[in-house]
Amino acid sequence: MDKNLDRDVSELWSTLFDIVSDGEKRLASHFEAHQLTPPQFYVLKTLSENAGECRIGDIARDHHLTSATMTGLIKRLEAMDPPLVRRRRNQSDGRSVDVILTAAGHDRFVSVQRGLMDQLRAVFGLLPDAERRDIIAKVRQYFTVFSQQFPLDRL
After folding, report:
1. Contacts of 136 (CB under 8 A, 6+ apart)
2. Strand locations in the chain, DSSP E?
3. For the structural domain made of 37-124, what CATH number should be given?
4. Which of 3, 7, 49, 111 is a good FRET partner for 82, with 20 to 30 A between their CA atoms?
5. Is the pTM of this model over 0.85?
């Protein structure tokens, strides 16, 4: 038994847990300051990543939610003043509903994203360039190995 490995695994687990837990709290606080819940922000993010338009069923699938739950979420975003999204029937499949990011939704997403990036920039700016690059490389390496060893479809 490798005591150093056990110690390092325990320390990494504790550190990752602290990072995730702290990050969730900070994100929730940041979203709240922009009058959004985390799921609402993730819908805006998904739309932004898909050129501002996506089928409601695809968004629900991406976020592991039912279409009914996603519909409620979309309705709340649509009811905001101004509306952050709008819905329309899919032109090629009348049974499907497309969700479209409005200009206000885009602006809100960018504002939240900019605030989060400003926080990262402030912290990362305290480190020399070589240390920043090293951190990024190590995190990427860890994530790549972890993802290959434990793909999500096998969990």
Report:
1. none
2. 53-55, 85-89, 97-101
3. 1.10.10.10
4. 49
5. no
